[in-house]
Amino acid sequence: MRDLENCALYEVIMERMNNMNTIYDFKETEMSGQEINLEDYQGKVVIIVNTASKCGLAPQLEALEGLYKKYHAQGLEVLGLPSNQFHQELSEDEETSDYCQRHYGVTFPMTKRVVINGEDEDPLFTYLKDSSGNGKIKWNFTKFLVGRDGKLIHRYAPVTKPEKMEEQIVEALK
């Protein structure tokens, strides 16, 4: 019976996933517990990034914050989704929030911890990975640039510095 329930649930989830065409179909939860409805980002250019505070790439948070401050008034949003999938995140969401603010000056929204690969992965990451055609996220700080239409423009590798995204961000903001 359990297999039938899981199969039926899987089919429902897959049907819903197939009907999702933009990031606007998703919701996340901010570290404060407040819901983030990505529908509120309609008409904005959005960078979505899986983060990890203890990762060697964490200084990218400062560069992402710089882009956020520089282009926010023109319509850029940055959304950080911490994940401990690679065992490099602090143990509590509150610690992560404080750490990111204190060490990197992060003011853009950060969500509660999410799973980015596997059975329990966050549906937003399933959508982004499917849209990019690149499959599994291999490390922290994989970045997704989404256009004003809510659709993926480009997926960036973890080692790609945020500054290297600037030209495409500026183009997307036009």
Task: Explain what this protein looks like in three dimensions.
The protein has 174 residues and is an alpha+beta fold. It has one domain: Glutaredoxin (3-Layer(aba) Sandwich), CATH 3.40.30. The protein contains five helices and six strands. The strands form two sheets. It has a four-stranded mixed sheet, with helices on both faces. A two-stranded antiparallel ribbon has the order 1-2. The longest helix is centred in the first third of the chain and has 17 residues. It is globular and about 45 Å long. The model has no long low-confidence stretch (mean pLDDT 91). Keywords: Oxidoreductase, Peroxidase.
Give the helices and strands, then pairings.
Layout: H1 2-18, E1 27-29, E2 35-37, E3 45-51, H2 60-71, E4 76-82, H3 93-104, H4 123-132, E5 143-146, E6 152-156, H5 166-173
* Corresponding CATH architecture: 3-Layer(aba) Sandwich
Oligomer: single chain
Number of strands: 6
**Under CATH, the topology is which?**
Glutaredoxin
Q: List segments where confidence is low: pLDDT < 50 over at least 5 consecutive residues.
A: none
Strand order across the biggest sheet?
4-3-5-6
Shape assignment: globular
InterPro entries: Glutathione_peroxidase, GPX_AS, Thioredoxin-like_sf
Protein name: Glutathione peroxidase
Family: Belongs to the glutathione peroxidase family.
GO molecular function: peroxidase activity
